[in-house]
Amino acid sequence: MKYILPLILLFTSSLYSQSRLGSSRSEIYSEFQSLSPEFGATEDGTPTMSVMFGRSYTRYFFDDNNICNFVAIVPNRQGDLNYYVELYNKQYVVVSATAWKMYSKDGSIATIELVTQSGVSMFVWTFER
Length: 129
Hints:
Blueprint: H1 4-16, H2 25-32, E1 38-41, E2 47-52, E3 56-62, E4 68-75, H3 78-91, E5 93-96, E6 99-103, E7 109-117, E8 120-127
Antiparallel strand pairs: 1-2, 2-3, 3-4, 4-8, 5-6, 6-7, 7-8
């Protein structure tokens, strides 16, 4: 019994940091309100919401209708980066060593890419156009 709670927390933290592409800003806020999301904007004025999870720092970007259209998941540690690569390899279609595709039931397709900018590795989620 004492092992169940840590397993639930581990599983929950991996689910929470996944993309919320297509979700509204208020839906994402409601889901993560207890984690004290921070709101901001990019230099060009794109609204953002950032959430710190156990394995990652995640930033959600919103379009003019407050719908999430871009997500950046920054793993906290090297082990967390490896965790996400392993998870994505199991759950999504592997396109290359640094890219995946996620196909949803509603017919939408998300592209996931592992990119490094200024020494920071992150998983970038976008809708496929």
